[in-house]
Amino acid sequence: MDRTRETSQDLLEEVKSLIENHKYFELRELLEEYHIIDIFDIMESLEDEDMQIKLFEVLPSDMAASILEESGVEFFSNMISKLEIEHAKNILECMSLGDMADILNELEEDERLKIIDYLNPEDAAAVKELLFYEDDTAGGTMTKGYISINKHMTALEAIEHMREEAEDAETIYYIYVVDDDGKLVGVLSLRELIVARNDSIIEDLMIENLVSVYDYEDREEAVRLVSKYNLVAIPVIDKENKLRGIIKVDDIIDVMEEEANEDMYKLAGSSEHEMDVAEDEKSTLLQQITSSLRGRLPWLILSLAGGVVASLILTKFEVIGDSKFVQLLFFLPLIIGMGGNTGSQASSVTVITLSNRDVERKDIIKEFCVGLIGGVICSLISAILIYLMYRDMDVTLIVSITLLLNMVIGAIVGVLMPLFIRKIDSDPAIISTPVISMFLDIIGICIYYGTAILMLKLI
Amino acid sequence: MDRTRETSQDLLEEVKSLIENHKYFELRELLEEYHIIDIFDIMESLEDEDMQIKLFEVLPSDMAASILEESGVEFFSNMISKLEIEHAKNILECMSLGDMADILNELEEDERLKIIDYLNPEDAAAVKELLFYEDDTAGGTMTKGYISINKHMTALEAIEHMREEAEDAETIYYIYVVDDDGKLVGVLSLRELIVARNDSIIEDLMIENLVSVYDYEDREEAVRLVSKYNLVAIPVIDKENKLRGIIKVDDIIDVMEEEANEDMYKLAGSSEHEMDVAEDEKSTLLQQITSSLRGRLPWLILSLAGGVVASLILTKFEVIGDSKFVQLLFFLPLIIGMGGNTGSQASSVTVITLSNRDVERKDIIKEFCVGLIGGVICSLISAILIYLMYRDMDVTLIVSITLLLNMVIGAIVGVLMPLFIRKIDSDPAIISTPVISMFLDIIGICIYYGTAILMLKLI
């Protein structure tokens, strides 16, 4: 057995040569050995568009449909437009309606309508329903390929029904039970159905207490429930509890990957929109640059304003007296850098914690202690270094005391700011690194100034 | 139908009153309506330990086992030690060996051996095997509850075998096919087995081309494959291709959640270790503080060293001439802050991109353009503000030109540094915000100095 046969150069060459020699039968035989995803990889590696189309045409309809489910909108509309209408219709019939709706969502109105025209009336209605939902809702993430049975059926009738529906179903691991009004009332696993006696009534077999999500809810709620209850799929219902679709675990995984990246983009001081554009293979360089600027510039300009305010505060330093004052300015990068770093570490950790659970008093005490101990250690190191380098006790004391204060305050601000944002009902992830740095820069300079005045008076 | 019946206060009160009134039969009836995870939530909300134990004792063995699978090591060893030995043995028999091994891993040696002594010889051997693997390998993540059949069986024999094994199996969606030596040679989905003719030979039905992962590989490889190929479980094999276990999609989801948080911790300038301790409910405040300091201090000290170097470079500024020189120092926070922010945005985005795909020339050009355009905009804004505030053309020009240069260089360093780290085969995620800031602070100050000298000579 070959292990995972991910696309190799050899295979690609073999496919190319079979296409060039018009050996389509052999090509089809070869491809049936491989996983859809690997075939899609090969297709993407073929640079010649004619070859792509030839390869696609050779595939059986169900395999071609699976390829389209994985592909982007450009590939989809390109392939569909190149195929004979009947062949295209057959392939569309095999596609997951959830994936199809996701692709149609990105097409122009007229092209979308043309594709919907190719579908049978039942599928067309279902796709239109899916297109109605926003992308980031449970409804926008669900698909239609589920099996549902009536609660009054016997186990035998249910198995019969399941066998008929199995071909169109995207998952047969859960069978959903509805009442005469189409309301979701229970769930059966395939395992339970198989071991049941033939004449048992579904209503007596089913599990009534099932986890579901409303179609208008955020898709992250679906992720949370699937993750919490270890599900392979979650049913989506409407306000009247009618079953509208399911979200499968592989789509949950896709959402999780996207959301994790989204959080990282926000933490870095950019936006979800930049990520969407960056991940869209069709986007042009110009679109990518515009989206990045849109995401990042607001934070940069806020930061710029902070820097200008900092310069205004620094002009007040002159009262300290010329020579000391200039020497103290040399340590500005050190002072504000360390406060900012401590603060951004504390705020990032708090934002991450908040995305998983509530932040407790214990977490705040922890950040305070970490800031204090880290501050004492860094302040001692800096005191030794600065004294050895400059042999000036005043400067050494002022810098190291300010460093300690700044790091403690950095830690406190870092942990409290996301909590405050959460309290006023915003997303704590907007506390990105640039914002916290700017905020702490200004606080840090004020503390530096205050400490300097105080120390020089005391000494 | 109630929707998701997550733990409510009412239910908690009901459970409490049933326990207090010794109505154990009614309690068991009530609990059977609920999902394991909800029962676990209730158990955690019960503050009284005796009540917890009573509630746990009431549960049937298989439900109790599922509760233990979800729980942490403390709850596990507490419950097992409080139960009668025979009851404990029954519960352990029902547990997923993968989850059990994860818990045993965290127990003291003598307690671990005591638990293993409770197991039947077969389970004991399997658990010992699982304990042998490192946590972050595929072997350390896998479990034993899979169904495997011999390739020479008929479909009917396979279904019989599956029915026998189904009780212990954690997933029956994939049935793995092995040869006489136990080597993994194929896979069948339950769906395919059910629709097959009774006398078909498994070898002819199975899919030979299956995706698997080696036991010694990183668990992230398992995540990548499950996500890429949309799997519900992935088989784990050893060097000789023998089937050793499976990783189920719900464990993949757990790993994904952990890894996403890990990346965020690293980006913030901390470590995986801090996260592990923070998420461990058993860890004391002292342990949490120590782990945070261990993760964050190295970056802070590195940053401190950078700050000291910066002060050394700044002393060279004195050649510029007293009054201009002091004025220029006022803009230090602005200059280095903006360079650092641009750099950390660029490096974070690059680190995130690298975790998903290769960074291409296009990405580098994009970051350069974003730095350049962002730089021009910020530089113009700062020029206007500074001129209006200080009415000094020299300072205005020096600051705004340096700002532009710094932001462009910040963008370039930010995108290239993670690429360089990847090239020398390290994890690009070590380029955390504190490191990139320190690096760019020093570069920024040198540019500032150079520009100032050059401009003042030119004017």
From TrEMBL, chains A, B:
Recite the UniProt keywords alphabetically: CBS domain, Cell membrane, Magnesium, Membrane, Metal-binding, Transmembrane, Transmembrane helix, Transport
* InterPro entries with a match to the protein in the record: CBS_dom, CBS_dom_sf, Mg_transptr_MgtE_intracell_dom, MgtE_N_sf, MgtE_transporter, SLC41_membr_dom, SLC41_membr_dom_sf
Tell me where in or outside the cell this protein is found.
Cell membrane; Membrane
Residues in domain CBS?
142-205, 206-264
> What PROSITE patterns does the entry give?
CBS (PS51371)
The entry's cellular-component GO terms read:
plasma membrane
UniProt protein name: Magnesium transporter MgtE
On subunit structure and binding partners, the annotation says: Homodimer.
Q: Would you identify the family this protein belongs to, as annotated? A: Belongs to the SLC41A transporter family.
Q: What is any Pfam family matched here?
A: CBS
Q: Annotated Gene Ontology MF terms?
A: magnesium ion transmembrane transporter activity; metal ion binding
Membrane topology, as annotated, equals: Multi-pass membrane protein
Membrane-crossing residues? 297-317, 329-356, 368-390, 396-421, 433-456
Give the organism, scientific name: Peptacetobacter hominis
